Amino acid sequence: MRWRVIPSVLESRPMITELTHATVLVEDTDEALSWYTEKMGFETRSDEEFAPGMR
Asked: pLDDT tens digit string along 1-55?
């Protein structure tokens, strides 16, 4: 099957130009936090503990 893109449909949809929040599930929070801040240059704005041993 071949898909056709109808230009008028694409023109009527707004394009995503900004992302303010994202949820990322990880196994090791400390390792992930280090990678995102040190390697990717992201900024930590909040790092809270929700329950003992859970962030």
From this structure: 676 766 665 566 777 888 888 888 899 989 999 999 999 999 998 888 888 878 7
Residue 8 CB-half CA count within 13 A: 0
Kindly state the tokens that stand for 19: 């992302």
Tokens encoding 52: 């003992």
Q: Look at the pTM and tell me if it is higher than 0.85.
A: no
Residues found in the chain: 55
pLDDT at 50: 84
- For 30, the enclosing helix (H) or strand (E) is helix 29-34
Q: For the chain, which residues make up each domain, given as ranges?
A: 19-55
Task: Please name the helix (run of DSSP H) or strand (run of DSSP E) that holds residue 12, with its range, or none.
Answer: helix 7-12
